[in-house]
Amino acid sequence: MNSEITGVVLIFLLTVILAYPLGKYIARVFAGEKTITGFMNPLEKFIFRISGINPRKSMNWKQFLKAMLTINLLWLVYGMFLLIFQDKLPLNPDGNPGQTPDLAFNTAISFLVNCNLQHYSGESGLTYFTQLFVVTFLQFVSAATGIAVMMALFNGLKEKTSNNLGNFWNYFVKSITRILLPLSIIVAVILAFNGTPTSYEGKDSIVTLQGDSVQVSRGPAAGMIAIKQLGTNGGGWFGVNSAHPLENPNYLTNAVETISILVIPIALVFALGFYINKRKLANVIFAVMTFLFVIFCAITVYYETKGNPAIDQLGIAQTAGSMEGKEVRLGAAATAFWSVATTSTSNGSVNGMHDSLTPVSGGVVILDMMINALYGGVGVGLLNYFIFIIIAVFISGLMVGRTPEFMGHKVEAREVKIAALVTLLSAFLIKGFTALAAYMVAHHPDIAWQVKPGAWLNNPSYHGFSEMLYEFTSANANNGSGFEGLGDNNIFWNVTTGIVLILGRYLPIIAPVAIIGLLAKKKFIPESPGTLRTDSGTFGVMTLAVIIIITALSYLPALALGPLAEYFSLY
Amino acid sequence: MSTNKRSIQLFDPELIGTAVKQSFVKLNPALMIKNPVMFTVEIGTAVMLAVSIYQLATGDTSQGALWYNITIFSILLITVLFANFAEALAEARGKAQAQSLRKTREDTPAKKILLVGEITLNEIKLVPSSQLSKGDIFLCEAGDVIPMDGEIIEGLATIDESAITGESAPVIREAGGDKSSVTGGTKVLSDRIKVKVTTEPGESFLDKMIALVEGASRQKTPNEIALTILLAAFTLIFIIVCVTLKPFADYANTPVTIAAFISLFVCLIPTTIGGLLSAIGIAGMDRALRANVIAKSGKAVETAGDVDVLLLDKTGTITIGNRKATNFYPADGVDEIAFIQFSTLSSLADDTPEGKSIVELAAQKGVQGKKESGMTFIKFTAETRSSGVNTTDGLSIRKGAFDAIRDMAAKAGHTVPAETAERVKIISSNGGTPLVVAVNYEIKGVIELQDIIKPGIQERFERLRKMGVKTVMVTGDNPLTAKYIATVAGVDDFIAEAKPEDKMNYIRKEQQSGKLVAMMGDGTNDAPALAQADVGVSMNSGTQAAKEAGNMVDLDNDPTKLIEVVEIGKQLLITRGTLTTFSIANDVAKYFAIVPALFIASIPALQSLNIMGLKSPESAILSAVIFNAIIIPMLIPLALKGVAYKPIGASALLRRNLLIYGLGGVIIPFIGIKLIDLLLGLFM
């Protein structure tokens, strides 16, 4: 048991150790300085030339967002089209059918917004062609979109007074050529050498020891799995994601995949410090995020390794911990750690079933997605955290008797209004849609739908409630993991989660970029002895308090009816 | 605040009476809607009233017992009334404060001068002050009460301004110069003056201030607007929480009464700060008024809290009164008595305190000077930086700053006597001011003027430094003198040999780098700088132009008042910030009271969340709602007095306030709700 926990601690430490230099490297890349990936320069130049893009053209916040939204809309149409007609396209050795329009909508949207809520199973729901040219493609571009918009934030914070938030295309292309692609190649190679398939042949047939004949799905999976981990995407090649022995063959690949989940989101926090030359600010942000992250990990690892009290009561020993829904080759601690890592970062890949987590752990991972800013998704995590900073800056500015300011710019009514709207939005989407689902289950369980609401939930009572809450929280956080007990491939869930996905992705991107655009335009106020420092431990505590209070106040009743009620009934 | 001269008791019975009446008047939804948080509470109250009436009529008990619903209704109503009371009390106090000032200007007889009278020119006619309008001229003699604000156009008088400032020592006001302004309600003690009315009736600063306090023209300040938005967002979040709770409860097969929903909602929304917000704003204006500062807008007071740079005139602020002549140093070969005579002659028409002190010192030494007809007096100008006289016997005597006179002498081909140059340096390095005297462009010697630094001023500057405010001394002295005084007084920077445009340029320069600048001024030539500064405080004694240009007027004419104004501004923001934090932190305990109470019937396991061990679901909800209501009046004194500002640095202050109002805000309601529950347990 102890060696399992040591393993978890080592994985986390190694991640941070790798993230620090990576952050420095990312800052250099975007500052246009010389880096070891300079050999990508001709490729980038070529891309810009054929696209007719001037990567040095400055953009204000509106132009920046326009570029981002336009290209995203294009990808949505492209993705949906290929998914619906995938049966007629090449690279379909298993003869899988085309997706229904509502499923294609949900799938395209969910990969486009970096969520990867999969209402299908990869082996039968997609072809090799769509796995590569829809799923893997969107996994790269959605992650790059996140990093590019984050750069708008960085530039706004760096400049004293400016309209220029940088060039979206420049950051977008470089995110892929300099960060995502090189790292994915490294991770993919490690996975391939450890047994993850990279074959274009169809299903393999094997005969098991029992003598049964079994069809085993495979495909060019390693590359896709690498970017799914690194780009906080999370949508697996196989239905059960990294719990599948071919997607995550052994403890080493598990460690590599866990590190891949966290390394870029953490590195981006450090990159902020290097890029705007305020390392102390980045360290404070990292400390606040890590504080909550470590607490969440500790709780989850504790409850998962302790086992299930209901099984204890049966007199069955649980030396390995609560192993329901977990892989024996990975163990309870590594799975618990993964579950927190994947929900913190809006990744959503799983190496065990979250539906089977003990109630407290289940509550923690839901809470983790509600906050959605503990490192967070690539790029967007910092944008979410920025919203918390704005609210913290505002309240603490008043508390020290000065008109609030952040990085030398006054935070006034307009910025507060936008930040407040985003805060409202998650509460509205998560609670509103969960309420709608709960209403359907409670009042119309037998309505004549293809899948009746009464049949949505595999588990009754509190756990069923958690399943619905989890689904919408995951969709809003663009996480993509699920409490898989939920019957979610039907029109209600495909459409509602699709709506939540779009709103939960783009509004929380538009809002911070708008705020930073407005702030950056304002007159710069140099720091004076009366300025409240935002890179101090005190301000870190203030931000932490804002995160906890806002999340707790918005979601406590929902959590009480789901995970907490389940916990108190079980223990 | 040192100047609570007419302090009004916090809970003056008369004011309470008015405030209570107003609390009911303010229930009018059209007025309530300005405060979105309390407006939603009022809607909740109306719903509970409807539920109670419905129950009375039908006897339906599915929504809980009748007494329970009526109790919830009453508590909610009281909550709204408490909030209204806070605002009304703040208004009443502000009004009372303003009224006591206004009383001084009730109708007084005015000796109006009719330029073209009915019988003769400049005929004097007695009219009530209310009939005076802008541009009229009136006469005031010893014993008269000045009927209107105005500017002296002729004469000089000693005036008792205690009615306005509370300061009993009479002051001198005279035509020309920077002390030409008189205020209605003050009393002329000696001499006679002619005064020109400068404001229309009802438009004086005091009238404007009263309107600001009364609420009619009270506009929300930018920070207040931003905070209102944030509070509205919190309110919306809790609307979502409460509305979604209905299907959640349906799913969990738990019936939740309307009373419980509304109680949860009212407890969660930030009613504490919502109820006190406007009271805090009004109280801020009131505090300014109490410090005898009339602010032209709430924004001005708020901005004062953000000030980074403070421009202070040396004279009167840093040093006591004015420089006084202490010594005459004739150049070698110049007779001392002759030198003193020259000095006196050059100062005869110099009505600056320095000039007068030279005449006084000369008199002490037995030298008298007399104005003679035929003398031409040369006034001091900022350009020449010298003044003097051309006598009938053809002497041209000039005195002024060393470099000004030196240049003048050099032009005429004279050099500076070595011992005079030496003396100038010695005087300057000792913080004194040398005034060099030249006769027919030949330097005859130097007069020493000395400053006396106010006791305790160093500590005030130290306090300002801790607040993060940079102090800048403005003086006409040469750089050497200025530096000496600056060092001794402990100011951060100084502008020496300041011409009016130097002040302006300094303010512009600081503003360009993003700083907020405050300054105090009184003279007409201060007006542009006062207008340029983010916070411009003009002295009541100052010229009308200065008063119009600034955004505050200090009735006490106290140059150190800026420091208090900055603190009032900070206090205003801090009070809002801390009470917001307190209000939101309170929600944690309220959740722990109400959420288990809502679901305990169907989910007994949630009893574990009832960490306060409240007696029953009904008593838990009642306790939370009662706590929510009574915390408002309990915090009224704090809202009106303001949270104390401590100059300990921003981070330390944040830590302190987070600990007191954040952590305190989490803990106190746990104790409060438990106590109320214990008390309710005796009856239920």
Word description of this protein:
The complex is a heterodimer of chains A (571) and B (684). Chain A contains 18 helices and four strands. With 571 residues, chain A is mostly helical. Chain A has one domain. Chain B is α+β, with helices and mostly antiparallel strands. Chain B is 51% helix and 17% strand. The two termini of chain B are 48 Å apart. The model of chain B is unreliable at 1-6 (pLDDT under 50). The chains are: A mainly alpha (571), B alpha+beta (684). At the A-B interface, helix 14, helix 15, helix 16 and helix 18 of A face helix 7, helix 15, helix 20 and helix 22 of B.
Topology overview:
The complex is a heterodimer of chains A (571) and B (684).
Chain A: H1 2-30, H2 41-51, H3 61-84, H4 101-112, H5 122-125, H6 128-158, H7 168-193, E1 204-207, E2 213-216, H8 222-230, H9 251-275, H10 279-306, H11 309-313, H12 332-344, H13 359-371, H14 380-399, E3 405-406, E4 409-410, H15 413-443, H16 461-476, H17 491-521, H18 537-570
Antiparallel strand pairs in A: 1-2, 3-4
Chain B: H1 13-25, H2 29-32, H3 36-58, H4 66-103, E1 109-116, E2 121-128, E3 137-141, E4 150-160, H5 162-165, E5 171-174, E6 181-182, E7 187-190, E8 192-197, H6 205-214, H7 222-251, H8 258-268, H9 271-290, E9 293-295, H10 298-304, E10 309-313, E11 324-330, H11 336-347, H12 353-364, E12 376-378, E13 386-390, E14 396-400, H13 402-411, H14 418-429, E15 433-439, E16 442-450, H15 457-467, E17 470-474, H16 479-489, E18 493-495, H17 500-512, E19 517-521, H18 527-532, E20 535-539, H19 544-549, E21 552-554, H20 561-599, H21 617-641, H22 650-681
Parallel strand pairs in B: 10-17, 10-19, 17-18, 19-20, 20-21
Antiparallel strand pairs in B: 1-2, 1-3, 3-8, 4-5, 4-6, 4-7, 4-8, 9-21, 11-16, 12-13, 13-14, 14-15, 15-16
Brief synopsis:
The complex is a heterodimer of chains A (571) and B (684). By secondary structure, chain A is mostly helical.
